Amino acid sequence: MTAAAQIGDGVDAIDTPALVIDLDAMERNLARMAEFARTHGIRLRPHAKMHKSAAIARLQIGAGAVGVCVQKTSEAEALADGGIADIFISNEVIAPAKLERVAELAKRIRLAIAVDSSLGIERLAAALKLAGSMVEVFVEIDVGQGRCGVAPTAAGALAQQVVSHGLRFAGVQAYHGRAQHLRTVAEREAAVRHAVSLARSAQAAISGAGIVCPLVTGAGTGSFAIEAAAGVLGELQAGSYLFMDRDYADNEPTPHAPAFEQALFVKSQVMSRGHSHAVVDAGHKAHAIDSGLPRVWGLDSEYANGGDEHGILRAHREALPALGDTVWLVPGHCDPTVNLHDHYVAVRGGLAHGSVEAVWTIDARGAVR
Length: 369
Prior knowledge:
It contains 10 helices and 17 strands. By secondary structure, the protein is an alpha/beta fold. Helix 4 (96-105) crosses helix 5 and helix 6 packs across helix 7 (185-208).
């Protein structure tokens, strides 16, 4: 699909709806997280499932990240094709055909993967042996997400199995997704305390099995500062900090944590006007709604559900925008919103008077296998 703008275009020339990055805000977010990691002596491996872009991953690595995380084999392949050479699939892969792809990918980049079952380890070892390649293996524990991962007490046996199959045991995957969107600091702190105690239990189980645990990796944009202070994690996987979204903005800020700015927007245009509402051309096909509807940026208006191609604006106190006016929307959830678009339009100089500096392909769009 043709991009919504060309390099050098003014903001007004960007066709709608379009996924737009405020480059100045994004670069400030990039620098703040990189500085946090350096100051705290902790590795940064941001989650690229959020942006799905090799160009953006290169910027993160250039700022000091050791590599990136992804969730799917096809995401890893797409980013590797874009030149990213250090990737962690922070998820389980159980299908033999996918594990064959994992093993082939490991021939050309440094690759890690998460496991949480004996079967997963056996199949991974078989695929790697056949391909003659090697990956680093993290045992995933469930620290409160209630999704993948084993109980901490089972981590030692799985680590032992990893080693017995001749694989490289790299440490523990301890990501707590639910903690990211607990609204108050107190709630997030309580969730992290529990997660940290479980991570320590996993370390003890692994040590008890006679195996050194090199690293505990995890954390997200909502919890990273609390987890860094706890002293167990050696690597942060936060990703959404780079763009932010409406849902993360609704969190109570964590004291002494970097403040991140909204950098990702959907540009839309008023296509129809009623007496008490305006209609914009960005509906569900332009932004994800799993975390709620978008926020209208810079206007005292509320976005309401208008369907696949339409959004309805209702003003609180100010006048509604006029027919043809631009309306900037802050997506409720950045990750799945990105997956709806083919390109980013990257703007320098602000949303009001800036110009297009880059157009980036979303390399891993639709990479769900």
